[in-house]
């Protein structure tokens, strides 16, 4: 954690206090998740510290497919990124599908396939 320039207070008082299960995660998983959140989603570390559970989510099966859907919807002007990205990541699968996929499937042909396809491709690659 310190390699990400997090202070001891952020690590102990923020991350471990909110999500002690992080101790069971591999360093590789944490690094991979941090890389995606910081470099692709452009999240600030304070957001990750506030929601350390996000580090446990599968990037390829949960986060990347959702990110792809949000980017398509934003590019078409159907949604604005007015919600915190962590809120979008924490939604249940059912809620995300209803609010961001099923709702726009008519306006964006192939949206469901994009969402499901990204997750399926990563399962085949594994």
UniProtKB/TrEMBL annotation:
<protein>
    <submittedName>
        <fullName>Uncharacterized protein</fullName>
    </submittedName>
</protein>
<dbReference type="GO" id="GO:0006353">
    <property type="term" value="P:DNA-templated transcription termination"/>
</dbReference>
<keyword id="KW-0809">Transit peptide</keyword>
<comment type="similarity">
    <text>Belongs to the mTERF family.</text>
</comment>
<dbReference type="InterPro" id="IPR003690">
    <property type="entry name" value="MTERF"/>
</dbReference>
<dbReference type="InterPro" id="IPR038538">
    <property type="entry name" value="MTERF_sf"/>
</dbReference>
<keyword id="KW-0806">Transcription termination</keyword>
<keyword id="KW-0805">Transcription regulation</keyword>
<dbReference type="GO" id="GO:0003676">
    <property type="term" value="F:nucleic acid binding"/>
</dbReference>
<keyword id="KW-0804">Transcription</keyword>
<dbReference type="Pfam" id="PF02536">
    <property type="entry name" value="mTERF"/>
</dbReference>
């Amino acid at each position: 954690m310190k390699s990400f320039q997090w202070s001891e207070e952020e690590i102990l008082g923020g991350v471990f206090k909110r999500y002690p299960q992080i101790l069971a995660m591999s360093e590789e998983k944490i690094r991979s998740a941090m890389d995606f959140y910081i470099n692709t989603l452009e999240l600030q570390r304070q957001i990750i510290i506030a929601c350390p559970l996000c580090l446990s989510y599968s990037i390829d099966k949960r986060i990347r497919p959702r990110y792809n859907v949000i980017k398509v919807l934003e590019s078409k002007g159907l949604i604005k990124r007015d919600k915190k990205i962590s809120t979008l990541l924490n939604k249940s699968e059912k809620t995300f599908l209803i609010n961001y996929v099923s709702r726009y499937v008519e306006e964006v042909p192939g949206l469901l396939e994009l969402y499901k396809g990204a997750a399926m491709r990563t399962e085949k690659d594994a």
